[in-house]
Amino acid sequence: MSKNTLYDKVWDSHTVARLDSGQDQIFIGLHLIHEVTTPQAFGMLKEIGAGVAFPDRTMGTVDHIIPTLSQIRPYEDEQAEKMMAALEQNVDEFGVRFLHLGSGKQGIVHVIGPELGLSQPGMTIACGDSHTSTHGAMGSLGFGIGTTEVGHVLATQTLALNRLKVKRIEVTGALGPGVTPKDVTLRVIHDLGIKGGLGFAYEYGGDVFDAMSMEGRMTVCNMSIEGGARIGYVNPDETTFEYLEGREFSPEGEAWERGLAYWREIASGDDAEYDDVYEIAGESIEPMVTWGINPGHSVGISQPLPEVDSFSGEDRKTAEHGYEFMDLKPGEAISGTKVDVAFLGSCTNSRISDLREGARLMKGNKVHPGVRMLVVPGSQQVKQQAEEEGLHEIFTEAGAEWREAGCSMCLGMNPDQLVGAERSISSSNRNFIGRQGSPRGRTHLGSPAVVASSAIAGCIADPREMGESA
Amino acid sequence: MSTKRIEKIVGKAIPIPRDDIDTDRITPARFLKSITFEGIEKALFCDERENTPDHPVDNPAHKGANMMFVGKNFGSGSSREHAPQALKRFGIEVLVGVSFAEIFAGNCFAIGVPLGVASADDVNELIKQAQEEPETRFTVDIRNATVGYGDRVIPIDIQETRKAAFLAGTWDMLANLRANLPQVEEVAQSLPYVTNFESEAE
Fold first, then answer.
1. Which end of chain B is less packed: N or C, by CB atoms within 10 Å?
2. Which domains, from first to last, does chain A contain?
3. B167/chain A closest Cα distance in angstroms
4. pLDDT tens across A192-208, in order?
5. Do the strands A30-33 and A124-127 form a parallel or antiparallel pair, or are they unpaired?
6. Mutate which of A149, A157, A162, A245 to test chain B, going by most B C-beta atoms within 10 A?
7. Inter-axis angle of helices A39-48 and A78-94, to 10 degrees?
């Protein structure tokens, strides 16, 4: 059993009671809510005549269904309009803070939490969305929950949870040029498998994480769930504190000093013990791209696609299905695979550093005539920042579409969808069949750099081979 | 911290004498679009009832029934929570049948609807009794795992852990969590970030 890790410390300090079910009742420090997983939960509250227990620990926004083109109400999609209206009414009725479209601070929950300083080290953070693991980058325990659990948090600010084991993932050394945090997370999932993290929280550490930016850490923690780990976190350090200082909801003055003391204290101790440790040499990681139908189906961009024989049992069947669905063959090169769509966005990679990385490669280049490219910033603030830096002009001059903030084509719950059997290179987090809105649509996951270089080349392309123009 | 103990249910029964009733038939898919469960009881078997003039659910003789006798593999198909919700909101407090689909059974447990499993012969007897003498008052005894009427007592299987939770009143997780609200407040006060570090933690 793990000892004296951040996970253990936060768990212990947030335990309310031991329940008859054998689970622990855990206090939730921040509850982020959005339009998709809350209406029935609010309905539950109304039925039992309960209010929101801690409205000041709750924050709402809209992201999943929001159109990124025309945001004029009522939305064309009736169901989207209905969900939006229900959320507006619920936050109003229950006195919950809400970052609406007019606030200038709306965005994907996992982008705005850290951006506004809402997500802080040592917190428990829950949201009805599996990518809540993102907030672990702040040194918190963030995890996704279902609608029934959303109701539990609204009514009590607590959840009935089973304690997880802790696996330390240590990435040593340094990343090579052109290798990004997205490649690190895809490599972790590649090595440990999509079920490798079941029952675990991942603690990411080592030289590579020490040197990684906060936004990079968010990308890695975001995809913990794709490896089966409901939680992934990085211990808070000076990089964390520097990021947090001066954000809207960050403490100030003496409160800031008290915050620092708490955050330093909550990090895993030097004597921390783990249930398991996995080590990767940073130098061995190259830009990764997925070739199949789950995020574990990835390959280094310069490597040939793996033989089916390298998989066994159920995994082999899934790999065969993956090759068939994606119309690819073992032994082939992944680079050079023609793409129809390039998507730069999602809670994994839609922050300002991601857009800068994309723009750096796009500058002076054109999106290939056979490719449609969407660039969707993660929040209104990211969008504004990007426009102040002129990034939007680089994208639009290259022929990409510059959109409003939202989840967009990551899951195609709004009009941004693949059509037919279109093939996309996407900076999002899931390459499941049908994920991007078309049942036959094919998704390759990669970093913002891979998305940009592929958009230009018209096929999956190694960003390390792109000459920087202009 | 016990909340709603479920020990005994007494009342009339609606007989549904067929096998493999899936959740699409209990609550048709178009009701999934709704953003609340409120009023979902209107969806209960609604397509079947429209096409079946003497559907048992609409039979005035069964009005006010609070239990349902069903066949084999009841609640199969889609995992939708709408089906047990519709049953419960319609007034059904317990179901006795030959077998139940697993996910449906889990969803029933979560909202406090016990399921009793009996032999096909015994279920047929119960269904016949409810059909022929709809005013019969049946008793489902959770502790002793029986269903009976008059002098007749029929054994039923209720999954042990669920039975214990019904008897202890701990099946309702939300109620369990709410029972500890004072301790929740204490934990909140002990966490310095709850006041955004404006005051020293207690």
1. C
2. 6-161 (3.30.499.10), 165-245+262-284 (3.40.1060.10), 288-465 (3.30.499.10)
3. 13
4. 999 899 999 999 999 99
5. parallel
6. A157
7. 40
Q: Which two tokens stand for residue A459?
A: 């096929």
Within 8 A of A79 by CB-CB distance, chain B residues are 33
pLDDT tens, position by position, B33-60: 678 888 999 999 999 899 888 899 999 9
SS3 state of residue A234: strand
Q: How far apart are CA A291 and CA A460, in angstroms?
A: 11
Query: Is A40 part of the contact surface with chain B (CB cutoff 8 Å)?
Result: yes
Closest CA relative to residue B27, chosen from B86, B70, B74: B86
Can you tell me the ipTM of this complex? 0.93
Q: Mind listing the domains of chain B with CATH numbers?
A: 8-170 (3.20.19.10), 172-202 (no CATH)
Chain B residues inside the 8 Å CB shell of A158: 177, 180, 184
Give dist(CA A404, CA A409) in Å, integer: 12
The C-alpha atoms of residue A9 and residue A114 are separated, in whole angstroms, by 21
Rounded to the nearest angstrom, the minimum Cα separation between A219 and chain B is 25
| Burial label, A164 (beta-carbon count in 10 A; 0-12, 13-18, 19+) | buried
Show residues of chain B in contact with A159, CB under 8 Å.
177
> pLDDT tens, A292-349?
999 999 999 999 999 999 999 889 999 999 999 999 999 999 999 999 999 999 999 9
Q: Which of B173, B190, B193 sits opposite A120 (nearest CB)?
A: B193
Q: A45: which 2 tokens?
A: 């509250």
Strand, helix or coil at A394? helix
**A459: β partners:** A338
Residues within 8 A of B (CB atoms), A 87-126 only: 120, 122-123
